Automatic annotation (TrEMBL):
The chain crosses the membrane at residues 12-30, 50-69, 89-110, 147-166, 172-192, 204-226, 238-259. The keyword Transmembrane helix applies. It is a multi-pass membrane protein. This is PQ loop repeat protein. It is found in: Membrane. Keywords: Membrane, Transmembrane, Transmembrane helix. SMART domains: CTNS. It comes from the Eukaryota. InterPro entries: LAAT-1, PQ-loop_rpt. The keyword rRNA-binding does not apply. GO terms for cellular component: membrane.
Length: 291
């Protein structure tokens, strides 16, 4: 192993960018986590957006893990600094997956209670009515099972290949490419369900605009940072480029609905103030009319 582990001279600019993106990725997701927890609601999220995003991110984690398996194995002979620098791509993508998976978990925990079951209909019978699950709640449960099943299967296959073959063998390279391409396809599709749902709801809901304001430009930097990592190919970074573009579209829609809601609230407030003023004016003039 030692003779295969050639130390790569550190590129301080790339290393600084990678570390900054790891920290930035972690911090950028916090507004979304906080908003869901504070509001005690995940209303507004599309379960299919979370399904595609979680599966895509986990595929990319396995992709970068297999493509940088040599660097990870060399950590046995490198010092801690060289290990961290040369495996920075794995840390970046793992951080992104972990934080997005956190949104998925919070979505399940804080799914709105009033959206879980359909309102009971009066049948005129004295028999107790059974609760009927809504389509959205049924979809959320199906998505949970699909995500956990995919994670278990993908992690198992990647582990078996990693302990059976050498990192440069075609079996590992092919599986990594399949994961990367699958991740890219899902990433391209990921934002369409959320864009459609947000557009139809005409409301931001539980989505965090500050998160998207940080992540959209950061996504382009993230893609570039993965692009310059040793041993990776286009299947690793194209996912983040496509995600950044589509997240920008969702961000524009959310900003538009945010200001629309502000205008509607301001108009409603003016109407209430006008109604209050008219009521006070009427009460002040009514004694004069009676006299």
């Amino acid at each position: 192993m030692a003779d295969q582990c050639v130390e790569i001279p550190p590129n301080h600019a790339q290393t600084a960018l990678g570390v900054a993106l790891c920290i930035g990725t972690f911090l950028s997701y916090l507004p979304q986590h906080i908003k869901i927890v504070v509001n005690q609601s995940s209303e507004g999220f599309s379960p299919f957006f979370l399904l595609l995003g979680t599966v895509s991110a986990f595929c990319n984690v396995n992709n970068i893990f297999l493509l940088q398996l040599n660097s990870l194995l060399c950590c046995q002979v490198w010092d801690l600094g060289d290990c961290l620098v040369n495996s920075l791509g794995v840390w970046q993508i793992s951080t992104q997956w972990f934080m997005f998976f956190g949104i998925f978990v919070l979505y399940q925990i804080y799914f709105p209670a009033h959206l879980k079951y359909a309102l009971p209909t009066s049948t005129g019978s004295s028999a107790p009515s059974h609760k009927t699950e809504t389509t959205e709640w049924a979809a959320a449960q199906a998505v949970r099972r699909a995500v956990l099943g995919h994670m278990a299967l993908t992690a198992f296959l990647s582990f078996v290949l990693a302990v059976t073959f050498e990192p440069q063998d075609w079996q590992i390279q092919t599986w990594a490419a399949v994961l990367g391409i699958f991740s890219m396809i899902l990433a391209c599709m990921q934002f369409f369900p959320q864009i459609y749902k947000t557009w139809c709801r005409k409301s931001v809901g539980a989505l965090s605009i500050p998160m998207m304001l940080m992540q959209t430009p950061g996504g382009f930097l993230f893609a570039y940072s993965i692009y310059v990592r040793p041993g990776v190919n286009w299947t690793s970074w194209i996912t983040y480029l496509m995600s950044a573009i589509l997240q920008g579209v969702l961000l524009i829609i959310c900003i538009a609905w945010h200001f629309r809601e502000r205008r509607e609230r301001a108009a409603a407030e003016r109407c209430r103030e006008a109604a209050t003023t008219n009521a006070l004016g009427a009460s002040e003039t009514s004694p004069l009319l009676e006299s």
